[in-house]
UniProtKB/TrEMBL annotation:
One of its GO terms (molecular function) is DNA-binding transcription factor activity. The keyword DNA-binding applies. The keyword Transmembrane helix does not apply. Residues 14-81 form the HTH gntR-type domain. Gene3D superfamilies: GntR ligand-binding domain-like (1.20.120.530), Winged helix-like DNA-binding domain superfamily/Winged helix DNA-binding domain (1.10.10.10). Keywords: DNA-binding, Transcription, Transcription regulation. This is FCD domain-containing protein. PROSITE patterns: HTH_GNTR. SUPFAM superfamilies: GntR ligand-binding domain-like, Winged helix' DNA-binding domain.
Length: 247
């Protein structure tokens, strides 16, 4: 009987660790915590309203996700961005996503088709953000954009493939958020992105795997090119400028 309170406390601690992990992960992907920024326990505890133990547990998991780095002399820091990482990320994301899309086209049913059309409709109806400060609009656009891309590959019948595609998409979102306003402010770029989304959806439903994967690869590469062209500005706006003093 005396052991029960301890078990409950452990359960509560574990639940809190999972919750703070999810919150930190969301903020890291969204860029609310800047690349290169030191993650100090005292500051995080005040911001997220939790103790050191669940924060340490969450940060350890985020190191495994490669969203956070741990160095003995600096502690935990937000994973940096780089052009070499961007190109490596895009190459792998393209390979796995096209593989998943081919499998989904071969296996997908009417429910899969309907979800693609529904996700595309919601994405096309979503207002595009015109300022990175408009976090609500950016978050909603990213949420619907992710849902559309997930809907394309949802029928691939491979949980591992879906997992890795999702992880790569999350990492790429860290770069894309830096140029989302560039895309939304250009009618040419915006039209190209929307046309590609619709073309991929239509080709997938028509079971045209060659066209669907070709346009998907082109779509991913186009996003990379936008980031590369604006990388200096992206780096300035996203990277942390804080020093190493304090804890």
């Amino acid at each position: 009987m005396s052991l029960q309170p301890v078990a409950v406390a452990d359960d509560e601690s574990t639940t809190l660790g999972i919750e703070i992990y999810a919150r930190l992960r969301r903020d890291l992907i969204a860029g609310h915590l800047k690349p290169g920024e030191r993650l100090r326990f005292r500051q995080l505890s005040a911001i997220y309203g939790v103790g050191i133990a669940p924060l340490r547990e969450a940060l350890s998991r985020l190191v495994s996700d490669q969203l956070v780095r741990f160095e003995g002399h600096r502690g935990y820091t937000v994973a940096p961005l780089s052009l070499s990482d961007l190109h490596d990320l895009c190459a792998l994301r393209t390979e796995l996503s096209c593989n998943a899309l081919r499998r989904a086209i071969a296996r997908g049913d009417e429910d899969w088709e309907a979800e693609i059309l529904a996700a595309l409709h919601r994405l096309e109806r979503t207002p595009v953000p015109h300022s990175v400060e408009d976090r609500k609009t950016v978050d909603e656009w990213e949420l619907r954009h992710d849902r559309f891309h997930y809907s394309l590959i949802a029928a691939c019948d491979s949980p591992w493939l879906l997992h890795f595609c999702g992880a790569l998409s999350d990492h790429f979102q860290r770069y894309r958020r830096g140029v989302i306003v560039v895309t939304s402010s250009s009618q040419e770029l915006l039209k190209r992105v929307r046309d590609q989304h619709r073309t991929i959806a239509e080709a997938a439903i028509a079971r045209d795997a060659e066209r669907a994967t070709a346009v998907l690869a082109e779509h991913f590469q186009g996003s990379v090119e936008v980031v590369v062209r604006n990388y200096e500005e992206v780096s300035r706006s996203l990277s942390a400028g804080n020093g190493d003093d304090g804890n």
